[in-house]
Amino acid sequence: MSYNIAIDGPAGAGKSTIARRAAAALSFIYVDTGAMYRAMGLYFLNHGIDPADTAAIEAAVQDVDVSIRYENGEQQVYLNGENVTGQIRREEVGDMASRTSVNGKVREKLVQLQQQLAARENVVMDGRDIGTCVLPDATVKIYLTASVEERARRRYLELKEKGQEESLEKIQEDIRDRDHRDMTREISPLRQAEDAVLVDASHMTIEEVTAAVLEAFEERRK
Ligand code: DC
């Protein structure tokens, strides 16, 4: 039996940073499930598929092979054999992923891949539906959130560092839209699992949040 840590929460709450750190501390594998939805999204984008065209999405899902490999401990995402890890971080890819992840066939394919990984390995897996749907029996479930204002502030600074100027208002609006879509979709919406530990990172440092996750894991694994 492997140990599984599930971390869910809205976009920009710091899930990947925390999951990566917790995985390193425990020598577990970090599985970024958002990257899988992004790889699918990239395929739809590259093939000019309209996210609202359910039939086209479902037909395309059969032609998409998403797989994960680890190189120097870092997750690499492959789309039909091509390493797309660098390409999937684009804003338009994230948007496409959010729009097409509402589709049941898209989810079915990726959830299967995620469950196979978690059955084999000790993992810290982050996403939107890990505790509620993918790993209902995870050793510990964390719901990591932060206020819209704080998430927007962090995103603003991140973009600024990359030399991209974007108004704080526009970033807040995008975050609210993404939250709304992720939380209100019909299949596996983002929500806190009943047995998840709630961590509000609005006023916490990365070290504090990582420590809280590790502590919750130690508590539950007993
Ligand atoms: O975490 P992220 O921004 O890389 O995820 C991109 C989109 O993928 C997100 O808006 C919703 C979707 N997603 C999902 O539906 N379920 C997951 N487990 C992970 C991501």
Automatic annotation (TrEMBL):
<keyword id="KW-0808">Transferase</keyword>
<dbReference type="InterPro" id="IPR027417">
    <property type="entry name" value="P-loop_NTPase"/>
</dbReference>
<dbReference type="GO" id="GO:0006220">
    <property type="term" value="P:pyrimidine nucleotide metabolic process"/>
</dbReference>
<keyword id="KW-0067">ATP-binding</keyword>
<keyword id="KW-0418">Kinase</keyword>
<feature type="domain" description="Cytidylate kinase">
    <location>
        <begin position="5"/>
        <end position="218"/>
    </location>
</feature>
<dbReference type="InterPro" id="IPR011994">
    <property type="entry name" value="Cytidylate_kinase_dom"/>
</dbReference>
<feature type="binding site">
    <location>
        <begin position="9"/>
        <end position="17"/>
    </location>
    <ligand>
        <name>ATP</name>
    </ligand>
</feature>
<dbReference type="GO" id="GO:0036431">
    <property type="term" value="F:dCMP kinase activity"/>
</dbReference>
<keyword id="KW-0963">Cytoplasm</keyword>
<dbReference type="GO" id="GO:0005524">
    <property type="term" value="F:ATP binding"/>
</dbReference>
<keyword id="KW-0547">Nucleotide-binding</keyword>
<dbReference type="Pfam" id="PF02224">
    <property type="entry name" value="Cytidylate_kin"/>
</dbReference>
<protein>
    <recommendedName>
        <fullName>Cytidylate kinase</fullName>
        <ecNumber>2.7.4.25</ecNumber>
    </recommendedName>
</protein>
<comment type="similarity">
    <text>Belongs to the cytidylate kinase family. Type 1 subfamily.</text>
</comment>
<dbReference type="InterPro" id="IPR003136">
    <property type="entry name" value="Cytidylate_kin"/>
</dbReference>
<dbReference type="GO" id="GO:0015949">
    <property type="term" value="P:nucleobase-containing small molecule interconversion"/>
</dbReference>
<dbReference type="GO" id="GO:0005829">
    <property type="term" value="C:cytosol"/>
</dbReference>
